[in-house]
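Subject: N-acetylneuraminate synthase

B.,
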Amino acid sequence: MQVIRIAGKTISSEDKPFIIAELSGNHQQDFAIAKEMIKQAAEAGVDAIKLQSYTADSMTLDTDKEGFVINEGSNLWQGRNLHSLYAEAATPYEWHEALFSYANSLGLIAFSSPFDKDAVDMLEDLNVPCYKIASFENNDLPLIECIAKTGKPIILSTGMASLAEIDEAMRTIRAQGNQQIILLKCTSTYPASAQNTNLATIPHMQQSFDCLVGLSDHTLGIGVSVASMVMGACVIEKHFVLDRNAGGVDAAFSLEPGELKSLVTECNSAKLALGEVRYGGTAAEEQSKMYRRSIYVSCDIKAGDILTSQNLKIVRPGLGMPPKYWEVVQGRKAIKDLDKGTPLSWELFS
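Prediction pasted inline below.
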């Protein structure tokens, strides 16, 4: 069994799912909102919070030339200039230490997605326990190599990456001697649809890359995340917001606190429900066995009377002979008086 440990937390196919609340830019550049998000995430029961570490200049160029303005009719950020969008969504670097410390004080693991080497250096100074590589950066092999050299666990979103591109990223990480990798199945549309999520890819990824696999879920609601437990997901990442109606760059596909709590509860339940192959009932079901059907005396019988369907009946509870002996007992003779409600047993007839 593969096991990865992050800040004392064990992640494996056997453990409860490791659930990450992604703050992204939903703090709306308000430090108090960012702290409240962390507080609410802790109360919801997640394992970790994640930031994104970049500046607008580290993400893109400040220009309106073709390609630098979003021009997709279905895109959540249609018409937005990339530079201004990233400036709005960025988490100031000077917040990181305070937010990480606050999260840790609430028992949460705190880390981030760096988008360039400077962000990695900053996060190393803050001694983060692991790194996340965003789906749009999974082809940035120099960045991936830089992160791999830290020797810390890496959570890598696959997004639009082909099998070959994922293999390149995995080889880049492993070439640095780093084997602590968790891949996340991810659909890079915002929001993503259930039919485009393709959870069946999760076990294929596990087999193809011999590593743990989870889900970065951009769908609405929690159903897809819960379903991923069946496919073997060990990590769930979901975007989080205090109030969708109050706005935030990712608010439209982010979970509110009550929904996040339900995510934690239902994913844990789904994981437990997988259990093992078992027939014949569990120990917890043992007492319920008495309420199965069995053969009972249905009216008073005198010694010497013949047992028939007129004086016997298959009913609950299950304290008499199993129904499979129904034909066997027909025509047998009672060896003593039997009251109505007597469970039939072999010693009561000849």
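The mean pLDDT is 94.

T.
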